[in-house]
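User: I'm preparing a small set of examples for a lab meeting where we compare how different chains pack in three dimensions. I only have the primary sequence for this one, and I'd like the structure in token form so I can line it up with the others. Please keep the answer compact; I'll paste it straight into my notes.
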Amino acid sequence: MLRESDVLELITLIYDAALQPTGWPAFLEKFADAVCGVNTSIILYDIEHHSGSLATTVRFDPELKRKYDEYYAGVDC
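Assistant: Understood. Below is the structure token output for the 77-residue chain.
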């Protein structure tokens, strides 16, 4: 279970990242820890053109990221 201090840190990190995009990896690292995740990512998806990409990832295998960007992003709904 998350402590209040952990939640407050996540909130701070997400607000910081919204103002400074280089902060997203720090938020994703902390978020992965909070939810016991193996990896986390932010996916940008263009519904009109059915395309997307893993914009920011942490703890993500580079080969899997490449496969997502090259194939799966185009078939996600």
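A couple of notes for your slides: The longest helix spans residues 4-19. The chain is about 55% helix and 20% strand.

User: Perfect, thanks.
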